[in-house]
């Protein structure tokens, strides 16, 4: 009995997900951020198709996600989610404008993406998509970002890197450098999904209206540097607490530990747009204590550091 031969993709790419440990918000004003590429990411495979238009099939960690069909003018002819389809259409059109490729280069093709986490987790579903499309269209992913979602671009840098990075904007241009970040107390670091998805674009828009002092930018940059070289858990926790106090004052929000986890034995830091997505919990307590604490609050998506963060090749 002959086995069915699966077609081979004519193009493949994969980008890493991301978490920003320090520098959220102020990275937009030139502060140095510390961010990590993740073991979870998103792939894009493109196959030949017998259909005249262009087909997009998206899957995620729990199975099928969205399907979009375009005709030969890149008009949406059918989709499972209208908002998803229109956003995808906009991104592809922007990419074509920046690219040496033409619309004809994606016709009679089928794109299949696989997101290795859930879209609402905020680990980089958009940035990994932009990165993979930029590789296919042979364009600068930062330019595609600025014509679509905006943002600093740190997530794009993580999509392509296998190591932690320092990231900053110099004259509004993204700069990143790989660093050997592998804390000896990583077994005391946990990442917890809070279930309160935030709109990063809306958060960025609101932040741009605020006046930020150069002193705060310098302080956050210093915290990023110290976090990267910290060798004591207690020092790391003090840096987290100071970072939370500074950002909380600037955006006029209560730090997440004070608001939701005041009795937690350890430090907790918001990651990304405050109020949702993942938080970083750091504690001297046992795994059992940490998992039970958050489990009792119905928060059961918890990763230990080494389960989520991409291994550092320098160690």
UniProtKB/TrEMBL annotation:
NCBIfam families: GHMP_GYDIA. It comes from Saccharicrinis fermentans DSM 9555 = JCM 21142. InterPro entries: GHMP_GYDIA-like, Ribosomal_Su5_D2-typ_SF, Ribsml_uS5_D2-typ_fold_subgr. The lineage of its organism: Bacteria, Pseudomonadati, Bacteroidota, Bacteroidia, Marinilabiliales. This is Mevalonate kinase. It comes from the Bacteria.
